[in-house]
Specification:
- The chain has 11 helices and 8 strands.
- It is of the alpha+beta class.
- It has one domain: Cytochrome P450 (Cytochrome p450, Orthogonal Bundle).
- Strand 1 and strand 2 form a beta hairpin.
- Helix 7 packs across helix 11 and helix 9 crosses helix 11.
- The radius of gyration is 21 Å and the shape is globular.
- Bound molecules: protoporphyrin IX containing FE.
- The site of protoporphyrin IX containing FE has 22 residues, from helix 6, helix 7 and helix 11.
């Protein structure tokens, strides 16, 4: 899209104007980070998503350094003036004696900020895309919002925004489903493949909001299952209901085949998602859009 918002047609980039600001607002609010700093996080965090190619990791280093410096300053502020928020609680745990070192504190807040934001951005955009691709399922959902929970689970199953887990290391020789694994082997479970397993989900390629998708593994599983799964689900349920109730006729503003995707393993993420609201804008959208 040429401009952030097109005032004639009511076009916006859904990522920039909704899918990114909403989870960012939620996680920064929970952590206790000031509203005026959200734009900065959005910039740093989106640079982390754009890791592509051999030198991708090098490109994110300046953002990591800036975020680290920023968080250390916030910890100091919270040490001096604690507030009822997560960073102050974590800082207190650090001060209460060796429960959390400064490095652990930094790693924890960094993880919550990035994991609690970037993932949900892509759940919202992939979820909207999936609903637009299946108008009859979208209509069924809009006719009965009590179906939000199963619909979001089915979106998570089909879209699987985080496609694989971090690497796992085999602790002892073991055989799984006839395949031998040896101590020290590295395994990267593909969550997207498990979510398309016909033994677990009949006709897995079909998107059906009334199927029971609860056993999907879009949030991982076992001891490292996603810490924020309940928050992410609730955010998505509220977001889709508010969005589609306010803009029932919204649609993609470009042919689907022109959508651009990041080419990197591990996450399904669009670079932009131009949509047409087909309605005068509303405070849900971050920047007012006036349709002529
Ligand atoms: C759609 C949204 C989300 C998806 C798809 C998602 C996905 C995942 C997955 C697949 C894992 C497991 C990774 C592994 O096993 O290697 C994970 C872990 C984690 N997630 Fe999420 N996540 C989402 C939202 C969130 C939110 C909102 C938060 C925090 C507020 C969060 C915090 C975490 C943390 C802290 C871990 C690490 C848990 C551990 O290693 O013990 N996630 N997430």
């Amino acid at each position: 899209m040429a401009s952030a918002t097109d005032k004639r047609t009511g076009e916006i980039d859904f990522l920039r104007h909704f899918a990114r600001p909403l989870p960012l607002a939620v996680i920064t609010e929970l952590l206790g980070l000031p509203e005026e700093d959200r734009e900065k996080f959005a910039r740093w965090a989106s640079s982390f998503t754009s890791i592509e190619g051999t030198f991708g990791l090098l490109k994110i280093l300046p953002g990591v350094r800036k975020l680290t410096g920023y968080l250390k300053e916030r910890f100091e502020i919270c040490r001096q003036h604690p507030e009822p928020d997560m960073i102050s609680a974590l800082v207190a745990a650090e001060q209460e004696g060796e429960r959390l070192s400064e490095d652990e504190l930094l790693a924890t807040v960094f993880l919550l900020l990035i994991a609690g934001h970037e993932t949900t951005v892509h759940l919202l955009s992939l979820g909207l895309l999936t609903l637009l691709q299946h108008p009859e399922q979208k209509t069924a959902l809009m006719a009965d919002w009590s179906k939000s929970r199963p619909a979001v689970d089915e979106i998570l199953r089909q879209a699987t925004p985080i496609q694989m887990t971090k690497p796992r290391y085999v602790a002892r020789d073991i055989e799984i489903c006839g395949h031998p694994f040896f101590r020290g082997d590295v395994i990267v479970p593909l969550l997207a493949a498990a979510n398309s397993d016909p033994k677990a989900f009949s006709e897995p390629e079909e998107f059906r909001i009334d199927r029971d998708s609860r056993k999907h593994v879009a949030f991982g599983s076992g001891p490292h299952v996603c810490l924020g799964l309940k928050l992410a689900r609730v955010e998505a349920e509220i977001a889709f209901e508010q969005l589609l109730t306010t803009y029932p006729n919204l649609e993609l503003a470009i042919p689907e085949k022109h959508l651009q995707w990041y080419e990197r393993p591990g996450a399904r993420a669009m670079k932009e998602m131009p949509i047409r609201l087909n309605q005068v804008a509303h405070p849900l959208i971050k920047e007012q859009v006036h349709v002529a």
